[in-house]
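Hello Y.,

Per our agreement to keep a running log of every chain we model this quarter, I'm adding this entry. I've kept the format consistent with earlier entries: sequence first, then predicted structure.
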Amino acid sequence: MAAHTGWPVTEASAGSGPFEAAGRPVGHRTTMRANHAGVELRRRLPRLLVGLVLCGLGIASMVAADLGLGPWDVLHQGLSRRSGIPIGTTAILVGLVVLGLWFPLRERPGVGTVLNVIIVGAVIDLTLLVLVTPAALWLRWVMMLAGPVLFAIGSGFYIGAGLGPGPRDGVMTGLARRGIPVGVARAAIELTALLVGWLLGGTVGAGTLAFAFGIGPLVHVFLPRLSVPDAAATDGA
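Predicted structure for the entry above:
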């Protein structure tokens, strides 16, 4: 048995490859990783927050336009009208229920997932305190069409931040891991939300079609332009 020298154990003595020559103390690599994670969070969190706010503004704009909503928001509005709970708060409650489905599906939420549930709904309620349905039909159309655009830009920031998927997306990917194609899972879940919301009194209309057919292409345009660049690529620039 080797005699104790009184020096701290190092990663080099543990056979840590590149660290052997440097002789850094055990835990140095862990500290580096923690520091890197902190830097990345500071880079990504502002984009995440901007994205979630824009998503909330887009949904609120469509609610105020009163020309139809996206499938999930039809459900939120239907539940809101039946319960008397504001639509944004209803969205938060539904999001928490959906997030609970992650556990049996063994999905792991990120910080973005949790903030998604809270911030989008809060922004919807706060915005609707000052945003009302205009009398002019043309202005309602402008607000309705602005909704998917704002939501897509927000999604570009939010998804591009890479801090966790939305609660509903996690359910779809969880089902996909169990052999159900993502497209089938998404279509089935969103059509169910739309039907239930419509039966509860949610607004289905031109906005529903605009959101359903527009959001995919719009996100496809904005996501690559708004994603956070890789740290290694940035350092090498």
